[in-house]
């Protein structure tokens, strides 16, 4: 889905601000695969991160390990493409699992907890440019963000399943039952925003699964604001 954000119906009174929103959650994207023997420790760590109010933990299952014996039941080629886009932006020559990308900036091996925690703390201290306010409406979500620093921002809507356990029969993790947290089921760019005028609109969001809205420079740059309705 995609919406033009040139003309917005503003609701409420939004105050212009350049102050960093220190309380916004940090977005952690875990690129993982059911067919990766190195991934279960990172999958377990994401369970812990998913319990934190100051973190939006998201598991994006890639499909490039499917050929080695087990097709990831959550794998999505769009998530592989997103990881490759991050790699190109960072001038990296390859992608890997498990990888955590924190606020679109820090690229960390997902099974190294100290590095993950250090990057997470650094992003918390840096804060975010925008405070994203979300309100559930009937069959949708209302999004409101006060104007601030100008730029080219992608407005993205993410849905996820909080938890699921998979019995893996083949491949590197054969015989294991692995529990996964915050499994992303869809990631849609719903519009672009210049940051200079109030952002206020509603989009459809059927069902009761959690709703995440992410503001990001382009779609593979720094994440400048985020909000979640769990």
From TrEMBL:
Please give the name of this protein: DUF1223 domain-containing protein
Give the signal peptide, or none.
1-21
Report the domain of life of the source organism.
Answer: Bacteria
Q: Known PANTHER family for this protein?
A: LIPOPROTEIN LIPID ATTACHMENT SITE-LIKE PROTEIN, PUTATIVE (DUF1223)-RELATED, PTHR36057
Which SUPFAM superfamilies does the record cross-reference, listed alphabetically? Thioredoxin-like
User: Which keywords appear in this protein's UniProt record, sorted alphabetically?
Assistant: Signal
Q: Which Pfam families match?
A: DUF1223 (PF06764)
